[in-house]
Amino acid sequence: MSSQQFDVAVIGAGAAGMMCAAVAGQRGRSVVLIDHASRLAEKIRISGGGRCNFTNAGAGPQHYLSQNPHFCRSALSRYTPQDFIGLVKRHRIGFHEKHKGQLFCDDSSDDIIAMLKAECDAGHVAWRMPCSVAQVGKSGELFRIDTSAGEILASSVVIATGGLSIPKIGATDFAYRIARQFGLKVVETRPGLVPLTFDGRGWEPFVELAGIALQVEVETGVKKERGYFLEDLLFTHRGLSGPAILQISSFWQLSTPLTLNLLPGVDVAEALIAGKGTLKKSLGNLLAQWLPGRLAEGWLKVNGFDSGARIADMPDKALRRLGDSLNRWVILPSGSEGYRKAEVTLGGVDTRELSQQSMMATKVPGLHFIGEAVDVTGWLGGYNFQWAWASGVAAGSAV
Ligand SMILES: Cc1cc2nc3c(=O)[nH]c(=O)nc-3n(C[C@H](O)[C@H](O)[C@H](O)COP(=O)(O)OP(=O)(O)OC[C@H]3O[C@@H](n4cnc5c(N)ncnc54)[C@H](O)[C@@H]3O)c2cc1C
To answer: Is this model's pTM higher than 0.85 or not?
Structure first.
């Protein structure tokens, strides 16, 4: 097979890769987009419960985790949520805001995939898909890419193969391998936005709470490492999930506890003690005013209280202990559900190796990394796609 030559080869046709290819193609560069999957942009398809939370109207650098928190600033300020919203509107895709600036498609994530595909078509992007990549090398000014569709030569290569999350839909460590091959550092990776699990026996008493959801405050870490969120929590059979836990999981370090407030805004101990004289209710009835009934019952049982006991008969010390258990529940997760369930991968190609304007490796002219492959990870809520779009545009404008 004879080799084919392009200005730009983008490896990975997900969110960042398609955006980058479209921008470069529409600038008049000849672009080839390579992906090993047989279905296009599967992660966009499954995102946001099938409706793709494609950006967050308030996205800014403060919503990202990285060893180098300022790195994302430049790309995010040059391609903003408003820019992406403008694109979505030009393609007449209906959308709505769900929660805290999170924008979702009215119909389906497929609309975003079709939009990106149309933008690539407008840039005359050539496709190689499904197509596997065996090797990427550089000789002189040109990169040589060994693929199942033959050798491809390109002046610039953009690696947009994402992170390790959800291997069953094609996630690989390709970006990290290529980075290391070219002598670039990779920040250790771990699953992010992921349900947390607890030691089997320690969690046993909580198993019967599975399915209960409520709004909580959750925090972990201190100073720069501190994470705090007011979001919904979900009890599961193996541990905790829901937006509060997914958010905090990205901040959580092994052996560090989480502190949860199951009743934000209520000082439970104070309310119980103050009510002793006037409240004739049982503990179970009183807690059920504030908490889902099943949780009130389960919580009292787990903490050794009799749900039928009258508050008036309880010593202050016991009421204080009950109040603290709800307002300051300190728990130590034993692990997470891992990449199988993680929405994102923390860590990745070290940003100190890359130009924040072009996402190019400063040591390897022509080699760029974008999207989730890079050590920039957003919170839950549309921030990860905004990073994919913004870093894709940054590289697409520079190649
Ligand atoms: C279940 C789920 C729901 C999510 N929902 C949201 C959401 O609503 N909003 C949000 O902002 N973020 C969401 N995310 C995160 C978001 O999907 C990712 O951050 C984003 O897709 C990253 O874009 P990317 O282009 O870097 O990587 P990806 O979109 O993962 O694309 C990488 C591409 O590279 C290809 N590839 C991988 N390895 C190779 C290889 N070796 N050779 C060739 N091709 C390869 C893959 O097939 C894939 O097409 C969700 C993630 C998951 C798992």
So the answer is: yes
